[in-house]
Write a structure and sequence with these properties.
The complex is a heterodimer.
Chain A: E1 4-11, E2 14-21, E3 44-51, E4 54-61, E5 70-76, E6 83-90, E7 95-101
Antiparallel strand pairs in A: 1-2, 2-5, 3-4, 3-6, 6-7
Chain B: H1 2-21, H2 29-32, H3 36-40, H4 44-52, E1 58-59, E2 63-66, E3 70-71, E4 77-83, E5 88-95, E6 102-108, E7 112-120, E8 126-134, E9 137-147
Parallel strand pairs in B: 1-9, 3-9
Antiparallel strand pairs in B: 2-4, 4-7, 5-6, 5-8, 8-9
The chains are: A mainly beta, B alpha+beta.
């Protein structure tokens, strides 16, 4: 199952994209309650959003983005049926991508 | 197990390389790689210098930050930044008193509108600063957010 929930809707020539990513976003400063050991940092560093394959937004994130990150943005253009994609890469090199169609 | 990590690593860099050569990644210095120094900086000025090469901000009333006055839970503080400034190249969010103030930076493509919403973690009551890069200049505005329970753990 994809880690990305993605919705895009077009209205009056503007497409609004809302996304939720499942990711722990560990800062690296939290301690395990039982062992007292630090939980290693694990967070998304880069998110790239595309419209019909063209990049519209590139986000660089630090560890201070909340767990299960939410991102919403909009762009000019876009029509029903267009493809909107989102992909992320985290500090461990893990990654995922998702795609949806504009409605 | 080590081999796995190695494979994953090489796959990731491979994919990035392909994306870069296909022109999918905007060839801008600040985007070529994750700005490690800027994100690991402990104060606002060095974070901005690391990201933009300058920490020279001009206050602007054309930037709007939508954030709660009081955040009950510092682990999830909803932040929206929008601006009327033209030719916006990037929007950056900084939580002044976080251990690493630089939180996120969004590089806008040609069609993207300067209106971004996300959720951030805040360690304690602090000013949230939104920095908009427009026409090569940095504009900023700030908003105080009171945090009753910190979100950075430790």
């Amino acid at each position: 199952m994809s880690s990305i929930k993605l919705r895009a809707s077009a209205k009056d020539g503007v497409t609004t994209v809302k996304s939720l990513i499942s990711h722990p976003m560990e800062t690296g400063t939290r301690k395990d309650a039982k062992t007292g050991e630090k939980i290693p940092a694990h967070f998304i560093q880069e998110v790239v959003c595309t419209h019909n394959g063209k990049t519209v937004l590139t986000a660089s994130w630090g560890a201070a983005i909340s767990k299960n990150p939410y991102l919403s943005f909009s762009f000019k253009g876009g029509a029903t049926g267009d493809k909107v994609g989102l992909s992320w890469v985290d500090n461990k090199g893990e990654k995922d991508s998702g795609e949806t169609t504009v409605n | 197990m080590k081999r796995r990590i190695f494979l994953k690593g090489s796959l990731a860099t491979g994919a990035l390389g392909v994306a870069a050569s296909a022109g999918l990644i905007i060839p801008r210095a600040s985007l070529a790689a994750w700005a490690k120094e800027a994100f690991e900086a402990k104060d606002v000025n060095s974070a901005l210098s690391g990201l933009f090469g300058s920490s020279d901000l001009t206050a602007s009333d054309k930037i709007r930050i939508k954030a709660p006055d009081i955040a009950e839970n510092g682990a999830v503080v909803p932040i929206s930044v929008s601006t009327d400034l033209a030719n916006v190249e990037s929007i950056t969010i900084v939580a002044e008193k976080n251990q690493n103030p630089l939180t996120a930076s969004f590089a806008l493509g040609a069609t993207a509108l300067p209106d971004i919403s996300t959720r951030i973690k805040m360690g304690k009551t602090s000013s949230v600063i939104a920095i908009v890069k427009s026409g090569g200049k940095l504009y900023s505005t700030g908003k105080e957010v009171k945090v009753t329970i910190g979100g950075c753990g430790g």
